[in-house]
Here is the input.
Amino acid sequence: MSANTASSQLLRLSRALQESLELSIDVNADAERLAELASQVEALNDQLSAHQGEKIMPYFNMEFGDELREALPYGPATGRYNAYSPDMEVVVENDRVVSDICFGKRHEGPPNSVHGGVTSLVFDQLLAFACLRNGTPGYTASLKVNYRRPVPLYKTLRFDTWLEDIGERKIIAHGECRDGDDVLASSEGLFIRIV
Here is the structure.
């Protein structure tokens, strides 16, 4: 099987696992049926553990081209091959990294809202992508997130990130999460340039 075919099937597996995660949260069955379902998932885990080895793609990929998500294809915030990662598209618009994201039940904190830690996780990665896209990759030194309103589940939201200041070693990046014209959360990250 070619690498392209394997990666497309890995994406299919990731999407199926993502759906399983979503469905498992609201499952309602008797103990006997839950035991059967748990046995089936445990059997799948046994099959998956038999195929552990070198990843199909590297965990960190600097040859991402125009597709920033390929820089960290297995990452929890934006990795398309990670079942926990939210559904999203990431594009570059002028000097900004823009992402349309829809969070699911697996990201819930307060009722019908995204957990604040998940919002922070996504901001951290998208701010880092803004640094990476600029050719100034860096490690997160600090991240500040201001939550203005609850971030809803099951709605496509716009995350917009950009670089504010690029120093010799320090990079300041900013971001916003919007629902239409409403700013739900904003962020500021300090990144230390990788030398």
